[in-house]
Amino acid sequence: MVDRKLRAGIVGLGVGKSHAKGYMSSLDAELVAICDMNVTRLNESGDAWRVENRYSDYAQMFVEADLDVVSICLPNALHAAVSIAALEAGIHVVCEKPMAQTVAEAQQMIAAAERNSVRLMVAYNYRYRSDSQWMRRVVQNGMLGDIYHASLTWRRETGIPGWGVFGSKAASGGGSLIDLGVHVLDLGLWMMNFPRPLTVSGSTRAVFGPQSKKTWGRHPGDVIEGGFDVEDGGIGFIRLETGATMVLEATWAEHTHPAEDGFGVELQGSKGTAVLRVNHYGSVDTLRLYTEIQDEPVTVTPGVRFNGPQGHEGLIVDLMRSLRYGEATGTTGDHGLAAVSILEALYTSAQEGREIPLV
Ligand SMILES: NC(=O)c1ccc[n+]([C@@H]2O[C@H](COP(=O)([O-])OP(=O)(O)OC[C@H]3O[C@@H](n4cnc5c(N)ncnc54)[C@H](O)[C@@H]3O)[C@@H](O)[C@H]2O)c1
Question: Do residues 189 and 274 both lie within one domain?
């Protein structure tokens, strides 16, 4: 146990703002330093949160700020290098999703954490929703029986990120699958206790992005700076060692109901099917359980209460408590690697037009 609050820092102040909320409501940590190369963003955040230690160079922050833990909230291409720099400095890391762009990077990150006896955690914030936690307990308690299929989706009508470097393969490693798909892929794997994947098939497309259509935060006709060379939609088929299958589908843009933006995890089993369906990040009426009673079909509508901090706030609060008291954390580097392995194989499959074996 550490008999004081952990000293926390954040690199990257886009979604890093959500990490800040978690640190500021944690009883086990305090936010003592922040870093962003965008000085306006840095100072606005520093002023709002009253954080005096402000850096535009993360390496300097790792040396000077005496951190116990740091959140890495940078574009995907920087996750591995900056996480490894922090781990080598003896700092625990909470890395944003996807943990890395490639299996090789993820393995190097895990090795750096082990070498330096510090923790590597991944910001899987959707695990920290009361509905997804309830659904996981249903699965783990055997209420669905043997799961034979998982359908994992995140689909948007208009939602190609109009900020940052999400359209660049070099900076982000991919598009909708690595950005949105990784969340639901992780939820499915986590609920099912990380079954080993055997093969992956995938297909990707770029229908709207290359024309700068269906983007968020831009005027129609504005060109996506830096170009667009990733997918805006993709699908994967995964065979698991248990005999079960998974279908993963993620789109940033498609012609569907106007303003559609929702994710779903559907797990089908021999005793029942559980469905988590979240529209527009909401929390009302998100769960269904389909089963049978006395041989007749029954639909259960759980009324899960959303108590306590949720999402990023819940994630950071939980990870800080685990770190401070030396308990196991819920999101590990191995969990990050599991999703990255499937996504890397999916992209290879899409490129080569064949099924990729993973074992
Ligand atoms: N878990 C989630 O739900 C969620 C949501 C949004 C984004 N993300 C992830 O967070 C990461 C960042 O996404 P974002 O939306 O915050 O992007 P963003 O572009 O809004 O923010 C990234 C920030 O990093 C800063 N930055 C870039 N390079 C830097 C460097 N070398 N040194 C210091 N600062 C640097 C930029 O100035 C910018 O402020 C991505 O990996 C993304 O996948 C996760």
Answer: yes
Does residue 14 line the site of ligand 1, with CB under 6 A?
Answer: yes
Residue 29 has pLDDT above 70, yes or no: yes
What pTM was estimated for this model as a whole? 0.97
Which range, of 12-26, 55-69, 163-177, 179-193, averages the lowest pLDDT? 163-177
C-beta 72 within 6 A of ligand 1:
no
Q: Which residue has the CA at smallest separation from atom 40 of ligand 1?
A: 75
- The predicted-structure confidence for 322-337, as pLDDT tens digits, reads as follows 999 999 998 999 999 9
Phi, then psi, of 128 in degrees rounded to 5: -95, 55
Please, where are the H alpha helices in 89-191?
103-115, 130-140, 169-172, 176, 182-191
| Distance from Cα 210 to the centre of ligand 1, integer Å | 22
Domain count, the chain: 2
For residue 1, is it within any domain? no
Range of the domain at 164: 129-307+340-357
Query: Does residue 333 lie in a domain region?
Result: no
Counting ligand 1 atoms within 8 A of each CB, the residue from 44, 71, 83, 96 with the most, and so the one to mutate, is 96
For residue 316, give the CATH number of its domain: 3.40.50.720
Give the Cα separation of 272 and 274 in Å (integer).
Answer: 7
| Ramachandran sector of residue 68 (left: φ over 0; alpha: ψ -120 to 50; beta: rest) | alpha
Proportion of the chain in helix, strand, coil states, percent, rounded to 5: 35, 25, 40
228 falls within a domain: yes
Same domain, yes or no, for 77 and 193?
A: no
Name, in order, each residue with C-beta under 8 angstroms of 249's C-beta and a sequence gap of 6 or more.
152, 153, 154, 155, 181, 233, 234, 235, 236
The atom of ligand 1 lying closest to the CA of 16 is 16
Q: Specify whether 25 is located in the same domain as 153.
A: no
- What's the pLDDT score for residue 258? 84
Query: Ligand 1 centroid to 311 CA: how many Å?
Result: 17
Q: Are residues 154 and 185 in the same domain?
A: yes
Q: DSSP 3-state assignment of 31?
A: strand
Ligand 1 atom nearest the C-alpha of 41 is 39
What residues have CB less than 8 Å from 105, skipping those under 6 apart?
Answer: 79, 80, 340
- Do both 67 and 165 map to the same domain? no
